[in-house]
Amino acid sequence: MKFKATTLIVIDAILAIIALFTAVTVRFDVSELSQKLSDPSKIYIAVIFIVVLLFSAHLMEVYDRNKNLTNRAILINIAFEMITSFSLLSVVYYLDSDLMLGRGVLAVSLSFFAFLQFCWHSIYLMGKSHPRFSQRVIVLGTGPLAAQIGKMVSSNERNFTLAGYATCYIDSKGETTDPAQLDVPQEMILGNCDSLLDIVLRVQAEVIVVALSERRGIFPLADVLRCKLNSIQVMDAPSFYELVQGKLMLESITPSWFIFASGFRRTTIFSITKRTIDIILSFFGLLITLPFFPFIALAIKIDSKGPVFFRQERVGDKEKLFVLYKFRTMKQDAEKGTGAVWAEKNDPRVTTLGRFFRGSRIDEIPQLINVLKGEMSFIGPRPERPEFVEKLKQVIPYYSKRHFIKPGLTGWAQVRYRYGSTVEDAVEKLRFDLYYIKNICPFLDTLIFFETIKVVLFGFGGR
Questions:
Q1: Terminal CA-CA length for the chain
Q2: Cα 10 off chain centre by
């Protein structure tokens, strides 16, 4: 039996029932408790309580096994879950007060559930690293791509265990390739692909990752199909890489992959909904922050000479140029004599106040105007300067593909990767940006939104 996210969810639901029952027991005497539990409507109340808790946990990535790798991360996610649950339940109780058992019950049940959930998830964290609870993976191939996948599996980032490699490189005598030509350890080769199913059954593998640098003439179609029909999961290297890393494997992607891969699709309803949410959030965001604009402007003027707002051309949807607005964080004429250069960590051009504004994201508040105008969205790839875009398009394959949706105030790359100032950083960010474009959906947007809040408030994760 393998531990999966469903195991966490089912046990969390049981713990929610225990927490609610305990809270009711603590807050009411025996006669009141019997009366309340005998009322069929209270079952409905319990169901709403459980659903809201599980939904909040899902939003706050409590069930993301690749995220919750430390007790600190679990504790922070559960804390955000409790805040979200309290907010949602408060709205529900405000709309229908008959659904509420009492403020005391809500406080006690949430607190007790948070304690039980943290204990349970911490125990799960300790136990999931055991080989018994991990998925065993066989990598089909012995070349550089197979070595890369094998190293990634060994890191155990998503609770996988490397069982070994199966080779498809067989010489005229039916023997495996000379060890000197292998990119993987000889002792980890389990056998030839012509006995792939026997190898899988022998090592009790559950996943086969096809990592052949060249498939033509050597791909063991019949053997892989036999494994597939025996309920063994078969994945190609790019798909497995995407699953584990949450980004795309650009070096192994071809133009045809973009055509036949799932995803990269936005329905009309989704586009309309996303734009509606952008308008509502940007309008109320400006309404709330506008009273603070004079104070921010005064602070900028006192800190350094120059204008309050910073305007700069950026590349947007379909590579259309637009003017992006920010509060100025750099010294006046910071690029005079140097031209367009990437911003760096601890950039000397940034003012003292600008460092605070950048860390707290205050400098990006004026971009709500760009969102309201329809030039940007709340969630999407960050817009880049046209000078850099032209250079990056020449050296990075598929870079222009990130411009097929509106840029965003924050994005998947921003919450998953550090501040970038090199071509190599641009490549890594493109991996995340294309992953977002491929898998774009309301749920992913919600995850990025809450992850951005965590990054801003706690300073961990991407920037």
A1: 38
A2: 23
Question: Does residue 282 sit in the same domain as residue 431?
Answer: yes
CA 395, 401, 406, 408 torsion: positive or negative? negative
DSSP annotation of 72 = H
pTM given for the model = 0.75
Of 87, 107, 128, the one marking the end of a domain is 128
Q: Which helix (H) or strand (E) holds 462?
A: none
Question: What does DSSP say about strands 309-315 and 321-327: parallel, antiparallel, or unpaired?
Answer: antiparallel
Whose CA is closest to 3, among 55, 54, 85, 68? 68
Q: What is residue 6's three-state secondary structure?
A: helix
Same domain, 288 and 390: yes
The residue with tokens 């790839």 is 381
Question: How confident is the model at residue 117, as a pLDDT?
Answer: 93
Domain hosting residue 362, numbered range: 268-458
pLDDT tens digits, 8-42: 888 999 999 899 888 877 776 545 555 555 566 56
Total domains in the fold of the chain:
3
Is the CB of residue 60 less than 8 Å from the CB of residue 450?
yes
| Tens-place pLDDT, residues 345-401 | 667 788 889 889 988 889 999 999 999 999 999 999 999 999 999 999 999 989 999
Task: Decide if 175 is inside a domain.
Answer: yes
